[in-house]
Amino acid sequence: MSCCLFLPAVCGIGRCWADIKTWVLSWSNDSKSTLTSFEDRYELGIELGSRDCGVIHECFDKRSNETWACKSIAKKRLIIRDDILNVKLEVDIMKRLSGHPNIVNLKEVYEDANYVRLVMELCTGGDLYDFIQTCEAKRLSEFSARHLFQQLLLVIMYCHENGVIHRDLKPENILLATKGSYFSIKLTDFGFATYIQPEEKLRGVFGTRFYIAPEILTGKEYNQTADIWSAGVILYILLSGKVPFWGATEETTFDAIMAAKLHFPSDPWDQISVSAKDLITKILSPYPTKRLTAPQILDHPWMK
Ligand SMILES: *[C@@H]1O[C@H](CO)[C@@H](O)[C@H](O)[C@H]1NC(C)=O
Ligand SMILES: *[C@@H]1O[C@H](CO)[C@@H](O)[C@H](O)[C@H]1NC(C)=O
Ligand SMILES: *[C@@H]1O[C@H](CO)[C@@H](O)[C@H](O)[C@H]1NC(C)=O
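The line above is the sequence of Protein kinase domain-containing protein; the predicted structure tokens follow.
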């Protein structure tokens, strides 16, 4: 079976957007938002991709000649008050996290009658999902995976320290700053992210099919450790090119995640160190209290 079958690009679940009527957002108290015309300043280029709630284009700054990425969210898709609050939350979170080298930085927010536009750093390297697909073996060496995973953990810790839980960690949301190189990753898409205090617990199903933590699926309370689960799934994929918990349908995938039985099939895991498998097993524990924390993972022998 081809690797692609095991690693499909999937959309997140959790928030729903539909076309019913137009809402006008009020960003007037938002210092980074500008009501001057987006078109006066920028020109949209090629489409880079679309997400649940918006389309991302390359965008050219006519004044500075710089190229950025622009996420355009159609206002007609923001139906209920919560939809608007969610966009505001995403912007707010991106502003709070801006400045970290491994986070896609938000430059400006524009709003006109039809769209909210987020002008962001452009990552020319595409996303990690595509990067894995272009690798010859559809998986990374332990050396490369370690380098990438270390950056991922550090940026997850940064989010958590700043009171933010991402809730949608997956290869599609990890961009590469430059093409063909895993040396600098950039975390993006904070559409499912929210604030969380130390010791606080959240409820509500957010995430993406193969990456969502079992405690979220079972409707239990969860916290930052749910992001660590998703990071563990990503590590498994980096090393093997396959998802650890597979089902042909969403339902059977969720059953596999809740059962949390890890398998390391001999191809390719026989070629991968025992230490890597030990680390993955300790991260992908279905019990949040037993799951390694980010600092514990960084301390694991495989990470050295
Ligand atoms: C914007 O600021 C004004 C005055 O500072 C305040 O009265 C108003 O409630 C604020 N609006 C929003 C949406 O926060
Ligand atoms: C942008 O490019 C145009 C055309 O190439 C050039 O005339 C202009 O000086 C450039 N502006 C900046 C700020 O580099
Ligand atoms: C998250 O929950 C786990 C298990 O309930 C707990 O052990 C851990 O301390 C919590 N983490 C934070 C940062 O509150």
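Note on the example: The domain at 128-303 is CATH 1.10.510.10 (Transferase(Phosphotransferase); domain 1). Confidence is low (pLDDT under 50) at residues 1-35.
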